[in-house]
Specification:
Layout: E1 16-18, E2 21-23, E3 28-32, E4 39-44, H1 48-65, H2 72-88, H3 90-100, H4 105-124, E5 133-135, E6 141-149, E7 152-156, H5 162-175, E8 179-183, H6 190-201, E9 209-211, H7 216-225, E10 231-235, H8 238-251, E11 256-259, E12 265-268, H9 274-286, E13 298-302, H10 306-316, H11 338-353, E14 357-360, E15 375-378, H12 385-388, E16 395-401, H13 404-411, E17 416-417, E18 419-423, H14 427-436, E19 441-444, E20 460-461, E21 464-465, H15 470-475, E22 478-486
Parallel strand pairs: 7-8, 7-10, 8-9, 10-11, 12-13, 12-18, 13-16, 15-16, 18-19
Antiparallel strand pairs: 1-2, 3-4, 5-6, 6-22, 11-21, 14-15, 17-20
Helix pairs in contact: 1-7, 2-4, 2-6, 3-4, 3-6, 4-5, 7-8, 9-10
């Protein structure tokens, strides 16, 4: 049985999921499939009134259902049922994901659906294991720290891995006893929309999970500024994250978690297993055609092994099957839109004009849809835009170093500090690198998250504030109240 599908035969859930039903609205945004540039749907834009309806529904449901005060084990059981339904409906979710996004259907079903369910289960198990505390005071007092949910959490997710990003936001917010109003990207809304329906079917009170569609300036801004949104969680660009902080500062101060852009280095020392390093680096940039915030786009190699590493990388990056996301044989993604494709072209062309050597790739593929060739740029000037800017595409840069200090200096980026990769067989060297490189996540002899979900993710510098995943994400969805009782 194949999981390939006909994109013209997919029924889409058009509308906003509020309470237990789809709510329709206008105006709308035309959507084009990344794989063939064909118009296939129109995404409604939630106005401030529709956002208010969703927030009001969430707030009233919290009060009427008692979700925040359910016995924590009951909340966990409801979330586990939700995860069960995500797996049971995996093929449908995968098709909704792959139709609009850059995720090939084989990866959507085997990775994205599975990871989303795992994330929900991970946070479900936090519900009855993280609470308040009794703290030491003098003998005439009892001191307590109470842990409580915020109420209604507003979340905004990006277009690159829609299902998984929704799991990042929904899982900890719901396990912690909050309701949520989530806006997926207007480019990839449909799989997240279906999660709302599955939540109600799982027995989570209708109105605890609400999904509103729309753009950033109208819908996203309305969520962030709404007076009944008690906390905001956002994953996306650094520019958009800055705009959210400005809105919060000017409207209503509230906690915010931001996972933003990156320009992550991958440092290859002379002692590294070059075949393994090349394989990890190639997979990291070929995955989703480099459209991930943690993409390790800056390869920084010891000069002594740079040439064989480049040869191994060239070979590893030449093996892929580009094709439409609905074909189960495809394993290389299109870029999400013509606009993004043009941005990649502009940065690469400017870098080559500035003296960079294009080792492989360097142009869009001659096929229908928004596909860009896997690309390696070498011999770049220090001010090359390919080194400075987050490209969000399948483009690697190669720089060389002569000693550790130079490697660490090249690794440092003036703006970003989201993740980094280090390849070495010298444990001490690996630990030195992990301590010296300024990034929220360091991977040694691998590149990419595991599926444990216990390790938090989040950046330094302009790559973000706060953490997603791990117990840190759960705790960030609760607030603390100090109580002192005189006996």
């Amino acid at each position: 049985m194949t999981i390939s599908f006909d994109p013209d035969r997919i029924e889409l859930p058009l509308g906003h999921w509020i309470g237990d039903r789809l709510v329709f609205g206008a105006p709308e945004i035309e959507l084009l499939r990344p794989s063939d540039a064909v118009s296939y749907a129109r995404c409604p834009i939630a106005s401030a009134d529709i956002v208010d309806q969703a927030v009001s529904t969430a707030k009233s449901t919290l009060r009427s259902s008692g979700w925040a005060t359910w016995r924590p084990r009951l909340r966990a059981e409801a979330l586990h049922r939700w995860a069960d339904l995500i797996i049971a409906e995996g093929e449908k979710l995968g098709r909704l994901e792959s139709l609009s996004s850059a995720r090939p259907i084989a990866q959507s079903v085997s990775i994205d659906v599975a990871v989303t369910a795992e994330q929900i289960r991970f946070f479900a198990e936090m519900a009855d294991k993280e609470g308040g505390d009794v703290v030491p005071t003098d003998g005439n007092h009892l001191g307590m720290i109470l842990s409580e949910p915020f109420g209604v959490v507003g979340a905004i997710t990006p277009w690159n891995v829609p299902l998984s990003m929704a799991g990042w936001k929904m899982g900890p917010a719901l396990a912690a006893g909050n309701a949520i109003v989530l806006k997926p990207s207007e480019l990839t809304p449909f799989s997240t929309l279906y999660l709302g329906e599955l939540a109600v079917r799982a027995g989570i009170p209708a109105g605890i999970v609400n999904v509103v569609l729309g753009d950033g300036p109208t819908t996203g801004a309305s969520i962030v500024a709404h007076p009944d949104i008690a906390k905001v969680s956002f994953t996306g660009s650094t520019v958009a994250g800055g705009a959210i902080m400005k809105t919060i500062a000017s409207s209503q101060i509230k906690p915010v978690t931001l996972e933003l852009g990156g320009k992550s280095p991958q440092v290859v020392f002379a002692s590294a297993d070059l075949k393994k390093a090349a394989g990890c680096i190639a997979r990291s940039i070929l995955l989703n055609a480099g459209q991930t915030c943690v993409a390790g786009t800056r390869v920084i190699a010891d000069r002594r092994i740079a040439e064989p590493l480049l040869a191994a990388l060239t070979e590893a990056m030449s093996t892929h099957r580009a094709g439409p996301t609905w074909d189960a044989e495809s394993d290389y993604s299109p870029v999400i839109s013509e606009r993004q494709l043009q941005r990649i072209e502009t940065i690469v062309d400017a870098s080559i004009t500035g003296g960079a050597e294009c080792v492989i790739g360097g142009k869009r593929m001659e096929r229908q849809g928004y596909f860009y060739e896997p690309t390696i740029l070498a011999n770049l000037a220090a001010n090359s835009p390919a080194l400075a800017e987050e490209i969000f595409g399948p483009v690697l840069t190669l720089q060389t170093f002569d000693d550790e200090e130079e490697a660490f200096a090249l690794s440092d980026h003036p703006s970003y500090g989201l993740a980094a990769g280090v390849y070495t067989t010298d444990l001490s060297q690996g630990l030195r690198a992990a301590k010296r490189i300024e990034a929220g996540t360091i991977w040694v002899n691998r590149y990419g998250r595991s599926r444990d979900h216990v390790l938090p993710t989040g950046g330094y510098k302009s790559s973000g504030i706060g953490k997603d995943l791990g117990k840190e994400a759960y705790k960030s969805n609760r607030r603390q109240k100090s109580v002192l009782i005189e006996l």
